[in-house]
Design brief:
This protein is of the alpha+beta class. The protein has 2 domains: 4-140, no CATH class; 159-213, no CATH class. It has 8 helices and 5 strands, in the order βββββαααααααα. It has helices spanning 59-63, 67-82, 84-95, 108-113, 117-123, 126-140, 144-174, 185-190; strands at 4-9, 15-22, 32-38, 41-49, 55-57. The chain has a 5-stranded antiparallel beta sheet with strand order 1-2-3-4-5. Strand 1 and strand 2 (15-22) form a beta hairpin. The longest helix is centred in the C-terminal third of the chain and has 31 residues, at 144-174. The radius of gyration is 32 Å and the shape is elongated. The termini are far apart.
Amino acid sequence: MNDGRYTLIYPSGDYRTVKVSTVKKGDLKGAQVLTLKEGRSFGRGIAFIRPNGHLNFWKDFKANNPPERLGRIQKAVDRIMADPAAAGLAFAMKENRCFRCGKELTVPASIHKGMGPECAKKNWTRDDQKAAYAWRKDQAKPTAAETKKHDDEWIQQKNLFAKEERKQEEKAFESDPDFREPYDPQIFQSWGGEFEGGRLCRICKVPVNRCSC
């Protein structure tokens, strides 16, 4: 199994996240260590991983946990080894981070494969890159129906804002004593009157919402 962070999502909605890392120095150089995620961070290692996926649990962890839990962890590792790409992608989608190095992902094409650009250079094949960027292109190009829906929603929202603005202005006009006088509806309408009960400017005799006095 390659080094990385892997997530398993269960039908109940629960999930388990683990990290696999290789010892770089010392007598154990080359050995792979399994770490469980606890809360927001990964704790200390709990077991060595053999090439066939079998776990050699560390003595203190094995002594403080029942066999049932050890068995569940082993089954989780078996599932990851059966499809590591899917488990890595699940981590990337869940955490929005590269499953190789743990750095935050921001590019959709990266999230698609679960790795950032630097890790992608080391691990992706040319076919992987083509598939990822094709996916990104499709995501960035909305359909005609989506574009129309977006435009309709924008127009509807704009009209609601304009309507609310007119209501607020009308309240302000009606609450001002200077505008509490009769007005000529014909003049008001000729100026495109918009407010029910609108008033004319006392100086220029045009609707107050058009007045520049």
